[in-house]
Amino acid sequence: MNSAQIVSLLIQASYFVAAVLLIMGIKRMSSPVTARSGIQWAGVGVLVAVIATFFHHGGEHGLLIENAALIFIAIAISTVIAWYSGKRVAMTAMPQMVALYNGMGGGSAAAIGASALLGFAAIANAPRFVPGMPAVNSSQIVLAVIGALIGSISFTGSKTFRFTGQQAVNGLCFLAAVALGAMVVLHPQTQTIVLFFAAALLFGILMTLPIGGADMPVVISLYNAFTGLAVGFEGYVQGNIALIIAGIVVGAAGTLLTRLMAKAMNRSISNVLFSNFGAGGGAAQEISGSLKPIEADDAASLLYMAEKIIIVPGYGMAVAQAQHKIWELSQNLIKRDKDVKFAIHPVAGRMPGHMNVLLAEAGVPYDLIADMDDINPEFPNCDVAIVIGANDVVNPVAKTDKSSPIYGMPILDVAKAKQIIVIKRGKGTGFAGIENALFYQDNCRMLYADGQEAATKLIAGLKAVDGGGGH
Amino acid sequence: MIDGFLALYLFMLAAFTGHEIISRVPVILHTPLMSGSNFVHGIVLIGAMVALGEATTPTEQIIGFIGVFLGAGNAAGGYVVTERMLEMFKSSKKPGSSQDGAKP
To answer: Which of A52, A91, B44, B54 shows its CA 20 to 30 Å from the CA of A461?
Structure first.
């Protein structure tokens, strides 16, 4: 065995170890007890594979991979930016951040596809067969195209999520896409490849644009699965088994996760993707009544009188970063012998379990947090339901108005509570862009304030009623 | 290169594995798991490294560079975000014991 063969063998062994670590990592992440070690196992797996790849073809021309300096620079710059932004981003903006990183993965898979396709085009267009030129396997081309297509869609689709403070990153990704396209254009015999990528990228944008906010969690998860599949297919093109395994495992897991989420919303995946959520709905049912504001002191008295209180958090709580204050309010209520629970809709926020993560961050114990199916029968016995920053997931028109874009989506039965207090910053509609009939109910009061501010005032209000420490 | 049917078996077994390890996951872990699997496909980075490593023309080099850049962002960002999410899960069980902010 010469040195090149030994190096190659070591790289293959490293990839094998990496694949095992990645699968074990995902497995460990699926249980709360081992979850944290899971990401670390997976992290070591990727690290091992990356280090090994630096020696790709080592021993033939030199110890390191060709273009090692370029590779190192690209990794260094990108890692610093991503690491910094990942550390700095607020927990509440996490879903958009995951979508962004996922889009980058899709873009990377598309780039692999592009370079493979360029290579195939060069071979196909060669004037005559050159000895030593690799033969092209048609299944490789097909999978390179499919992988590049899916990766491109995931790349631009994930970019459609807009969030403040990240325009620079978005712009950077846009420039990358443009540069990629321009480079392919420069290659004379590859017009079809260019057109193909332009179409794929455009499709990603167009596909995501009409999708309404309430469906976003499902879409993020779907793109995650897409990227996994794209990575798996490009892995086949490159003959890299570690890529195939990791990509396909994520593709399958992501698809299942997407289906679980779509099911929780009573919508099929095709329904989510191809129905114009929130765009139609011109002939919506007339909502009668008016919005009735309430002051924080009066709301605090209502809470003081109540025995059973259910808190319904939504994306608005995340935006206001109000989870800590809300938990403080809950502790004040529990201290006064109130029965307090948190009701979580499966798609509250921007990702499934988004609210659970935020409440966990604030320190809310799990036994106070209830899923939709468990809590819905309790609403009729609930004295006061506090809705903070949730909108579409508590809108009763999902049950009553067939013309509504959210018709058929399971909702939390907040409308059945005896009293409802809605904490909301303004009078705007939810992601779906439709009026909320709940807010116009006779037993519903609007507390117009930022989530943190409202919770602070309610705590003060409670103390004003009984002079402080409960009893 | 991997033989066609061998690749098919690989795809099939990997798909079953992915399906199996997710199928009994509590709702509270859906978000971290999505984030974690997002990190796992960051392994695409090694594919992009190979693509750049085998690039010869400037066009190929630029495409490869973009691929490596994006792949590294996926891996690094995905790791940090998932770590932060799971860290919170830990601290919610034992409040006040989050002193080990150890580097990965």
So the answer is: A91
Reading the block at residue A128, the tokens are: 């005559």
The candidate with the shortest Cα–Cα distance to A147, out of A112, A191, A96, is A112
Which residues touch A111 (CB under 8 Å, ≥6 apart)? A180, B48, B51, B63, B64, B66, B67, B70
Looking at the complex, does the CB of residue A263 fall below 8 Å from at least one CB of chain B? no
CB < 8 Å to B100, chain A:
none
The tens-digit pLDDT sequence of chain B (104 residues) is 567 788 888 889 999 988 888 777 776 677 788 888 899 999 999 999 999 988 888 888 998 999 999 999 999 999 998 888 877 664 444 443 333 433 33
Residues B45, A39: C-beta atoms closer than 8 Å: no
Q: Is B8 on the interface with A (CB under 8 A)?
A: no
Q: What is the pLDDT of residues A322-374, one digit of tens each?
A: 889 999 999 999 988 999 999 988 777 766 677 887 888 788 887 888 888 88
CA distance, residue A294 to nearest chain B CA (Å): 34
ipTM confidence score? 0.84
3-state helix, strand, coil in chain B (%, to 5): 80, 0, 20
Catalytic position from the list A215, A392, A413, A450: A392
Question: What is the nearest CA distance from A22 to chain B, expressed in angstroms?
Answer: 7
Per-residue H/E/C for B39-87: HHHHHHHHHHHHHHHCCCCHHHHHHHHHHHHHHHHHHHHHHHHHHHHHH
Task: Say which of A30, A75, A139 has its CB closest to residue B4.
Answer: A139
